[in-house]
UniProtKB/TrEMBL annotation:
It holds the Pfam family Beta_elim_lyase. It comes from the Bacteria. The modification N6-(pyridoxal phosphate)lysine is found at residue 197. SUPFAM superfamilies: PLP-dependent transferases. Its EC number is 4.1.2.48. GO terms for molecular function: L-allo-threonine aldolase activity. Residues 3-282 form the Aromatic amino acid beta-eliminating lyase/threonine aldolase domain. This is Low-specificity L-threonine aldolase. One of its GO terms (cellular component) is cytosol. Keywords: Lyase, Pyridoxal phosphate. Belongs to the threonine aldolase family. GO terms for biological process: glycine biosynthetic process; L-threonine catabolic process. Homotetramer.
Amino acid sequence: MIDLRSDTVTRPSAAMLSAMMSAETGDDVYRDDPTVNALEAEAARLSGKAAALFFPTGTQANLVALLSHCERGDEYIVGQQAHNYKYEAGGAAVLGSIQPQPVLAAEDGTLPLDVVAAAIKPDDIHFARTRLLSLENTHHGRVLPLDYLEQAWAFTRQHQLALHIDGARIFNAVVAQQTTLAAIARYCDSLTICLSKGLGTPVGSLLCGDTALIARARRWRKMTGGGMRQAGILAAAGLYALEHNVARLQEDHDNAAWLGAQLQALGVSIIDQQTNMLFVAVPEDQVTALGEWMKAHGVLISVGPRTRLVTHLDADRAALAQVVAHWKAFLQQR
């Protein structure tokens, strides 16, 4: 099957599996797993932060970041379509009693700072205390401009807010901007990194921040069930990915652009293409049939009026050419 539903569907390569099988392990709850320690040290080095912490999932890493920045009755300002507001089961509110204040993002994925300023609550007993601005980079494939991040950083200093970046696909931003992770991370107090999307590991995310934040996060990770034991087997995949799978993300970006051009030539309406995400418009009367046709021909996509196609290391140009051929055949038989 050719699976373009998400870049979460990637499977570890033979070389990554070999690294996992040969990993040195210990008990990470006791902090004596050398491979986990090495992964966390490398993430801290790359991000320019003092420390990092390894998590089973990005959802848990984002949740723990919010719990570490905010207390009960506090509030974080976040995008209406942001993952840690819309797609993480309301964890911050349910488990942390942290109130989200969603605002609409601009077309480029940024949260307009004048809108954010208007959402900050007065220091009054009637209101939740605004403590944090949470951004997402990339946001639906869109890379946040570095000058915006610099402005957001200055804004949060002015308003005594912390700034967190949900960086599930932050290395896509690094590659697209031809910069370094540290150059982006300098404009935030904390960031998460997902290893199991475009970087191709089977599981795992990281939270990076200062020493005090990561100390709080370690306690919250344990409380929320994220303390793992011989996790070096998983951390080895992360180390492999950081060494071998970052620069190759450019291939995914190029493939998404190529796929968009090919589908547009067939008459498919292209909504947007940024980094490794392509959004196309599918007529209502074609949605169900297209999904069934593609599945019958070995292609998995989540078809809707606004269909997202995500390129990744398990879908090379030859596979995408098959997708185009099957899409063309579908349109021809309509």
